[in-house]
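Listing S7. Sequence submitted for prediction.
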Amino acid sequence: MDPYSKTIHFLSGMPRSGSTILGNILAQNPRFHVTPTSGVLSLLSGMRDAYEGIPEYRAAPNDKELMGMLRGVMFGSFEWVDRPVIINRHRSWPMEVEMAEAILGRKAKFIMCVRDLTEILASLERVWRENVPLRPMSECTQGNAVAFRTMEGRCSQWVSQDQLVGRAYVAMQDALVRGFRDRMHFVHFDDLTRNPQGVLQGIYSFLGEQPFEHNFEHVEKVTIEDDLVRGVKGLHDIRPAVRPVPKRAKELLGPLAEKYRGPYIWDDFVTRFRP
């Protein structure tokens, strides 16, 4: 299969908001190849940024040549895949909509997973508590060990613009400000776990794909990644069956949960499903 003939879409959004389970549900469709957290975006941005730092290219810049390189990385990364539709997953794609569309030569499509911020922080706090006896979750602390000694400090760090939650939120917000709302399809975690059939119908309509009968009772994990590389165990674990997830913000965060309640930037864009 010609790698340049493949259709590439993107899976992004907030952390702890269902992108892993959604990706593995979508991967049941034999037309779809869904990546784990992908390094393709880092390769592309690194190549683009390095291009002007190379004296030979700086002396004779050629945008067509650079675009050929970028397209080669994007499409060549999936030359080995025998499925026609690629769903590439990374939370930072909303920061690079312009580059994605220049490479694809069309409007890009982004599936954006979101969840109430209080529940995102509660989920991170749970993972923190499970990990901290044996490992420091080094990627999450990023040199802020003192702040991470308290729950309030951890939450304030996670929502900072240069940290896990804040970075994803700001990327999404800025993409909306830049006018890319029509490229985004928002999926709320609660809807995905309560009404997966309805959510998947919306996704298929957005992607322009024929509906597929998914098995929500047995979701095999095929997007494998070693979370210990990031110093975290269980960050991308999924349940084998899609079920509603109890809200735990009040239990885990206590009074701190009130500080992070909405409204959120995606509230007007999510098609909510009622159980």
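Caption to Listing S7: primary sequence and predicted structure tokens for the chain studied. The chain has a mean pLDDT of 91. The beta strands are 7-13, 32-37, 85-89, 110-114, 184-188.
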